[in-house]
Write a structure and sequence with these properties.
With 891 residues, the protein is of the alpha+beta class. The chain is 52% helix and 16% strand. The two termini are 40 Å apart.
Length: 891
């Protein structure tokens, strides 16, 4: 109330008070006699060079207030007295008056804030830009997190949809497999009344879709006709209920339809798949949202087409499809997760295998598994980046707090004068918080521009193109407004309470002995700020070292000039002549056919046996198949025996190559010539090769078996000639392949590029970590730069006296810099064990990883001190070289 009374006094003497406000002021002064004398004294002594009210008006106000005070004091029933006074002065506290009053207060605060920003342009720039960068970073991260949390949540029946997986033991560990036998679907539908729908799917990336002379290879899906009962993708054309009922029906995305038909209406048109089967377009999907795991598909064809291409399997041993269930309404998740556990046992198949389900809400976030259970995968990444967003904002807010308290000496007299004029602490807190909130709102507006500017680069960084800022969503703008206000309050709350606590009698005499108390919080904030920044730097260096280790580790094969093509169309039939012409052209030096590409593995089995094997032992071996020249083409070192060659050694169709790890798992002392079995198939070992990387780059060496065969070839691997340019070799290869496989596009893959592509996600994480580390150190240094400038300005008289007494520039620079360098040193000491713990925990997720060397901390510590020294040293030197006479005269 005190602040409001003085606010009315200010309106009165400025001539801006309405009649109602004058009446209200008289009443409030009469009922608050302790303030009446202070106001009398102020009005009597106030000398306005341009008075807006006459002495008669002043006297009338005070007389009315005195009359109200006497009337209030003379009655024994104050409540009735107050009511009589209210009636007499006809006070009306209408909603309009309250709003007007608050608007006037806000107007005064707004003007004060604008004046402060203009008066301290450098500090205002640092505050606003620091908050804007921090807020833009947080908005980008939170928009991405919101996108990740919304994955597949747009489907109408999302709460009833589950994916079924199998759980089994491999090498003593519980594993989870996503593929299931196709024959399981009718069993689920027939034996479980809780199941409403079952949908099987199988991914395909090898079909070529042709319309006339236009042909495109794209990623697609084979699916049951009821696919769209579960997955609510929007149709631009066609009927979802019947789109996949025909065996030769096909549903295209709008992008694929545009490629094949241009601007023509595709519905009802015919296209060819692999130049053999005609398919009728029965539907066109609208562009798929980015927040779905199926956003890669370009077409969907009926699952029954698998029978025509001989991909269908009707046995329990072959896992060929992914399976999705839609349960009937009312089946809780807890029941669903246990419902199908014994489905394989009930069918007397696949002993030791159990069926588990995962709800749609967990597909994207809980994508990893440990010991046969789904655990947080992508969710862990979201938590980390959410924490990073918060920490970047904390660093930006600390900047504001530090600079706000650093200016305390300059604003102390302002606070003292305002308090003497009647302003209470509450009004001052409101003013300072208003300044910080207004600054944060400006920063929030700028951050939107930064977000729009950085969004394309951020999309590239996270490997998507579908992330957009939802400007059309009102909730987004409410969130931005709330975020800005909240940031302003958090950033300004400490300076507001600190500055408003000054005692006017002391600050007007120039006594600011609270300085000792304020140093501790400011030092703590600088230490916290740089602790976070140094943590980011250390973590970034270790992340980059781990990625560099994977990129440059020994892969076991020579990827230089190694390339491959997938065998499609007529390539299998014409392989002998293709091979002959490629070798004759000089474009390649060696060639081999394999099941998967030489640097990849598609299959694995655990039913291998050999003499002396423990019957209870179950070991899963990764498999590939080759015809001849495998080691010669790939560059994998042959340690024992010879390579597979089915042409020179026809019995090599039963021959195998073992990697070092596979030989150790089996326990053969002299592997060459030893006999093995895979199921009922007899095999013999012809050679042992060096371990090589065919799966995740961070895996320990896998046990791999290469088998000889005359069929099951999916890839043609070749090493480009070293005697001619790669581009010329690829042109020659393209000419030969197009001649003998004209119905398919010529597509090749370089092994080196594919390997690097598999590490793209880790590289993106490293780049993002580096970007955030750079931001944190940049924001921290901005604050340190301004803080050093204020410290130098506040000690300008001391610096002048020291120079007069003979202090050198170096000595003064050291004096001004050492306190900050000590704080950075303390931050490094705190940050180092925190970063070590975080990175040790992160590296434990990788079976093969680097060690955390001590030199990382030495380099980071030296770099942090150097950065701080350059930041503070500039201001220190600038202050040290000033003319001391001028400084002392100014003071």
């Amino acid at each position: 109330m005190e602040e409001y009374i003085w606010f009315l006094v200010e309106l009165f003497i400025s001539g801006k008070a309405t009649e109602a406000e004058v009446d209200e002021l008289a009443y409030l002064l009469g009922t608050h006699h302790e303030l009446l004398n202070a106001v009398k004294e102020f009005i009597g002594e106030y000398d306005d060079p341009d008075p807006q009210v006459t002495s008669t008006q002043k006297q009338a106000l005070l007389s009315r207030a005195e009359g109200i005070r006497h009337e209030f004091a003379s009655t024994t029933k104050p409540v009735r007295a107050i009511q009589r006074v209210r009636d007499r002065v006809s006070l009306k506290f209408s909603f309009t008056e309250i709003v007007r009053r608050e608007a006037l207060i806000f107007s005064q605060l707004f003007k004060t804030t604008v004046r402060q920003l203009r008066r301290n342009r450098t500090i205002s720039f640092i505050n606003i830009s620091g908050l804007a960068i921090g807020m833009a970073t947080a908005i980008l991260i939170f928009v991405w997190i919101a996108n990740q949390l919304s994955y597949d949540q747009f489907h109408v029946n999302k709460d009833r949809i589950y994916e079924m997986d199998s759980q089994f033991k491999v090498n003593g560990q519980l594993e989870i497999g996503g593929a299931l036998p196709s024959v399981l679907a009718p069993v689920l539908k027939a034996n479980y009344p809780q199941v409403d729908e079952v949908v099987r799917t199988s991914g395909v990336g090898s079909f070529v879709l042709k319309n006339g002379d236009k042909g495109f290879e794209g990623k697609g899906l084979l699916a049951d006709p009821n696919f769209f009962d579960l997955f609510s993708f929007k149709f631009a054309e066609g009927n979802p209920a019947t789109a996949l009922t025909g065996v030769h029906s096909i549903v295209l995305t709008q992008q694929m339809a545009q490629k094949l038909f241009g601007n023509d209406d595709p519905l009802g048109k015919t296209i060819k798949i692999d130049s053999t089967a005609n398919f009728t377009v029965t539907g066109v999907l609208e562009p798929l949202p980015s927040n779905t795991q199926l956003n890669y598909i370009e077409y969907i064809v009926p699952l029954n087409y698998m029978r025509e291409v001989h991909w269908a399997h009707d046995d329990w041993e072959t896992n060929s499809v992914n399976m999705y269930l839609m349960l009937k309404p009312g089946v809780p998740r807890q029941v669903a997760e246990k419902l199908f556990w014994n489905v394989f046992r009930d069918q007397h198949v696949l002993p030791g295998t159990n069926a588990i389900v995962q709800p749609m809400s967990d597909w994207w976030l809980y994508s990893n598994y440990e010991n046969g259970k789904f655990v947080a995968g992508q969710l862990v990444m979201l938590r980390w980046f959410g924490l990073i967003a918060i920490l970047v904002m904390v660093i930006a807010c600390i900047n504001y707090m530090n600079l706000g308290t650093a200016r305390s000496a300059k604003r102390a007299k302002e606070v003292g004068i305002r308090k003497v004029a009647g302003a209470g602490r509450g009004l001052l807190i409101k003013q300072f918080l208003g300044e910080s909130v207004f600054t944060a709102i400006i920063a929030g507006a700028l951050s939107i521009g930064l977000v729009q500017l950085c969004m394309p680069s951020f999309n590239t960084l996270i490997g998507t193109s579908g992330l957009v800022v939802p400007y059309g969503n009102p909730l987004f703008w409410w969130a931005i407004a709330g975020f800005s206000i909240f940031t302003g309050i958090i950033a300004g709350i400490y300076p507001a309470f600190y500055l408003s606590s000054y005692r006017p009698a002391r600050v007007l005499k120039g006594i600011l002995n609270a300085t000792g108390a304020l140093v501790t919080p400011r030092k703590v904030m600088v230490v916290v700020q740089f602790t976070l920044a140094i943590c980011f730097i250390i973590c970034t260096m270790i992340i980059y070292r781990q990625i560099d280790f994977a990129l440059h580790r020994s892969r076991g094969y020579d990827s230089t000039n190694l390339a491959y093509m997938y065998i499609k169309g007529d390539m299998a039939k014409n392989y002998p002549v293709i091979k002959q012409e490629l070798l004759a052209s000089g474009a390649i030096s060696t060639i081999t056919r394999t099941n998967s590409s030489a640097d990849d593995i598609w299959t694995a089995h655990d039913d291998y046996s050999w003499q002396g094997k423990d019957p209870a032992m179950k070991v899963q071996f990764l498999e590939n198949y080759a015809d001849e020249g495998f080691t010669r083409t790939t560059g994998i070192k042959l340690l024992q025996g010879r390579d597979i060659d089915i042409y020179h050694y026809p019995t090599d169709t039963a021959g195998v190559l073992l990697t070092e790890t596979a030989a150790k798992k089996i326990g053969f002392k002299s592997p060459v010539g030893q006999l093995m079995k895979e199921g009922k198939t007899n095999l013999h070992v012809v050679g042992v090769i060096k371990d090589y990387v065919a799966t995740w780059a961070y895996n320990l060496p896998d046990p791999i078996i290469i088998r000889g065969t005359t069929k099951q070839f999916g890839a043609m691997n070749f090493r480009l000639s070293r005697t001619q340019p790669i581009s010329a070799s690829l042109v020659k290869i393209g000419a030969v392949v197009r001649r003998y496989n004209p119905g398919y596009p010529y597509t090749y893959y370089m092994a080196d590029n594919i390997y690097h592509g598999r590490l793209k996600d880790e590289e993106n994480i490293g780049t993002m970590a580096a970007a955030f580390a750079g931001l944190t150190i940049f924001i921290s240094c901005m604050g340190l730069f301004a803080l050093a400038a204020f410290m130098a300005e506040n000690r300008v008289k001391e610096i002048g006296i020291r120079k007069v007494l003979g202090a050198s520039v170096a000595a003064i620079t050291t004096l001004l810099s050492k306190d900050f360098l000590v704080l950075v040193g303390i931050a490094f000491v705190i940050a180092s064990p925190i970063a070590w713990w975080l990175m040790n925990k992160w590296l434990s997720n990788y079976p093969l990883h680097i060690g955390i060397g001590y030199w990382v901390f030495i380099i980071t510590g030296a770099a942090s001190i150097l950065i701080a020294l350059l930041t503070v040293g500039f201001q220190a030197v600038k202050a040290a070289i000033l003319n001391p006479i001028k400084n002392l005269r100014t003071e």
